[in-house]
Request: fold
Amino acid sequence: MTLLSGPPHVITVGAGLLRESLAAQAVTTTPVDWRPPLPGTEGALARVLADPRLPAANERAVARLISARPVLSAVRRASEVLELGGMTFLHAGPPITWERASGPLRGALIGAMLLEGYAHDEEDAERRLASGEVRLEPCHHHGTVGPMAGVVSPSMWMFEVRDAEHGGVAYCSLNEGLGKVLRYGAYGPEVLERLGWMDRVLGPVLSAAIELAGPIDLRGMIAQALQMGDELHNRNRAATSLLLRELAPAVVDASPRDAAEVLRFVGGNDHFFLNAGMAAGKVATDAARGVPGSSLVVAMARNGTDFGVQVSGLGDRWFTGPAGVPDGLYLGAYGPADANPDIGDSTITETSGLGGFAMAAAPAIVRFVGGEVADAVAATRSMYEITLAEHPAFQIPGLGFRGTPVGIDVTLVARTGLLPVVNTGIAGRLAGTGQVGAGLVRPPVEAFTAALLALAESAKDPL
Amino acid sequence: MTLTDVVLVRPGVYHDSVALMRVSRSMRELPGMEVALVAMATELNLALARDLGFELPAAGPGDLLVALRGRDLEGAAEELDRRLAPLSGARAREAGGGGEQPPRTTRSAARQPADLVLVSVPGEHAFAEALDAVLAGLDVMVFSDGVPVHQEVLLKRLADERGVLVMGPDCGTAVVAGVGLGFANVLRPGPVGVVAASGTGAQQVTSLLDLAGVGTGHVLGVGGRDLSAEVGGRSTLRALRMLDDDPATELIVLVSKPPDPSVAGAVREAVAGLGTPVVTAFAGERDLTAAAEEALRALGRPVPAWPRWPAGPPAAGTHGSRPEGRDEPRPAGRNGSRAEGERGGRLLGVYAGGTLCTEARLIAGRGEFTDYGDDAYTRGRAHPMIDPTLRLEALSRAEPGDVVLLDVVLGHGADPDPAAALAPALARCPATAVVALVGTEGDPQGLHRQAEALARAGATVFASNAQAARYAKDAR
Reply:
């Protein structure tokens, strides 16, 4: 079949008149709903698209992302596996200082100071943090991701996730539950008490249980959970149940005395799986890093002040814009005035083709997007416009088992002006408040524009 | 008025937390409402309510907890029920909705099967869409103008690697398997295939062939710069091979400006290597009408007298290409009395088609010729084949004694009734008007209807641009 062998099916992009004239000739057309790219990106787009490395680089980067096989291999203390010496804490998002840190991040850091015994009370903790004697580093710089404030201190127990395909490893802390919890910036007595129990009981028991149960295939578990109505960011109910089912016998074997308490804690927190899923996303996106010329987004993360992205072909550089306030629904009497700007590394789920990108799989939570199942389907469908692939394992039954949109391409974001759809929890603005709601947020366009301009600077000349 | 608390527990009523948060929010919007918590009675929510100072009865996670605080809560419970009721109703209508969304890029559209991409976005954005097509292995026609030449070179180099054809940029005309793309005449199917670095040039040749009863299967545009040294004729060479491979094509016509000397050799070599005969129409070497006539002879078909309106004397063997318009009627002024005294005015070429404009200028040898289809005139406005404004202004500037020569191009994509605007302007115009009308009997505008309307307005109308130019040259 060559072009000349019969009337062509024509994709039309541009003037409607030309499409109408084809329609008048009874020619089948697929019209593109084209709009001009983000303002100020025309020149950079042309340079990046003309980079002869781009198509193969993106193909390679996204192939590595979707072929990753994350397995939950261990639960270990942060001090064992991460370099946190000399009073170092990790936090979510791009680099930030205490001065610019938002309420919930400050609250979580204060909590971590108290937890680690680096300070004897709140004032002492604040003083030491403000003095600069504590090093603050992004989780992402340590192969780690942290939900919300994402604060990791040396004593915390971490999920360890390995990529059985490419050999990477990533870490994420254990989930504390909802409401007043450290990751949302709460640090009251009940928060520290719970963290103490996690330190003494939950961590050791899970660690022993996973040693007994052996590595757990997270890729398969995520694939199943999607088909059970999770999108793996704001809804992890199915995935948590699956993980619990896998772990329960080993937990009992490992510690008959604490088993009931541990299983009750895990079973009572629908988001328990989230942290393991985030580490799975991190290890997969890390596999796609460092491909020269690639415009694939390998991290989206927020520190409560800035929203940052990293791109495969641009090393560890962050491109940031101001974090937005999520549009969502609020717990109890809280309202938008109580909300902190967007925070957390959990956008690694969207970066790896889950969360907001998989909304169509999770009709139970679609009201976050504004009410209707149709909106969730539309949210997922629109993400196919800015992604390089459809995930081979993560499928959406309601879309005819189409793979989730995965692999955000900076050039496609600039061309379409469509920003990633992000599902998220909402932290209270004031340190110590905790969670106030959950909803949707759009990343700042500046982060993507800046990344595109940097790609243009590093682009190879085609001719 | 003091605030009152209302606390309700509805055992065994379950709604998901998000739905209930929406109900909470809408309850808070009621006048006088200070606090509204509608949630499943989980530990977390019970604690939230207690923190807000509510007195709570015993309740568990399977119960619905309602805690309201405000003034005048008389009707609050009913309001609550009104808001909860839809949550229990069948939501089936929502399921599976969300219909298909149109693709936002060519890359996205190319996920579905397609054969060809037609790009007509503004030139500075065309590269991205055309590149998507090439990378998806699809042939592409770039109608857009203003695409930088280095982007054209890159597109065509990548297209060569992938075995696809890039028509354009600035390709205004193509016909693929009888389908007209961009500005294209309705051509009868037939044995001719055209490779064209000139859109209106191809339209002139194929329209004349059509009037002579010979059909054209394909017109593959390549863009005006294809045969330049920079681009190297990549698309021309590919299009020639495609037509050579097409079993239905018996004769190839190559319409272009003369190739850059560095490319001419490759083109000659390619032409010599084809199994299909090739007629070349290089602007400046000979006119398009002559090329159409050679194509007819190559096919063994008679060359007709090309139509003109009002009909001239049917001089036997009239060819548009004959020198000096020997047996063509001498034009007269609009009214005989004026014409004689006002001889010696200007010859104004008011063109929409670039190649037609060049051809007419070369034939006339003098005069002020303007190609209103040039990039300089189309930035930010539609092509003069669609928007007559600039040419109407030019006509209004003509003076008695002038001769105005203009082209009117019919077909898909062009003005649906060009005579509607041009005929009144020509009727008002004090100059002698000569029109080259490029079109076929199948064109939606109606060739004869247009010709007659223009002729009634006082213009002398030719199907051959070369004949029109010769006539105009002699008309002063």
User: Anything to note?
Assistant: Residues 66-280 of chain A form a domain with the Enterococcus faecalis V583 fold fold (CATH 3.90.1710.10). Chain A touches chain B through 72 residues (CB under 8 Å).
